[in-house]
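Re: the request from the purification team.
They wanted to know what the chain is likely to look like in 3D before they choose a buffer screen. I agreed to run a prediction and write the result into the notebook, where they can find it.
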Amino acid sequence: MTSDLAFECLLVSRDPSVVCTINRLLGNLSISTNVCLTASKAADHLSEGSTDLIVVDWDDDSAGFLNGIQRSGKWQKPIIVAVSSRDHPAPGVHFVVRKPVTEVSVAKSLKAAYSRMLHDYRRHARYALMSSVQATDENKRSVEVTITDIGDGGVGLSSRGELAIGDVLSFHLLLPGTHRPIYVEARIQWARNYGAAGCEYVRIPPVDLTILHDWLKSKTQIKKPLVEI
């Protein structure tokens, strides 16, 4: 992600026609592009920063390049689009653009990749909160907790009380700017000695889930595409 909150793509190709076509369509999606002529230079670029999308013009070095990405210690891997004469060039490729490239085929694959990046971003993004709530555990014990952050995949919280991995807490939470509290049941996935914990959702009623999704969507600040997705 760039400083102006645009997705960032690494385009690996030495073919001017491929670079020109894909770069133009990436611009339509408001995706920032870095072009590398070889897989080795692309690997160096990846080690220096974050990349959301990789478009690789498939050649003999591409499989090794992708294997390096899969073996990397980064927990969130980029979306991979391969430009290839084969339907399935290698494991780890999410989308394939068949050669010879056309604007229609490239646009279709890039829009699908964009939608997946947006989904992944929203799932992993966290938004800070400092909301105190009275939670209840499975034994009906009341626990005062502070919701420190929230996202599509779960919540972070802190408490002076004892929290154990696997505990399920239920609570009502009023999100800033919304008209009523939502009901959340969440399971503790990890806990620290100083009271911080991370939780995954167990259950949120459908109406409340809509409120949460709408609130999270309103917080998303990603640079908007110039074309309809």
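For the purification team: The CA atoms of residues 83 and 200 lie 37 Å apart.
Please add any questions underneath this entry.
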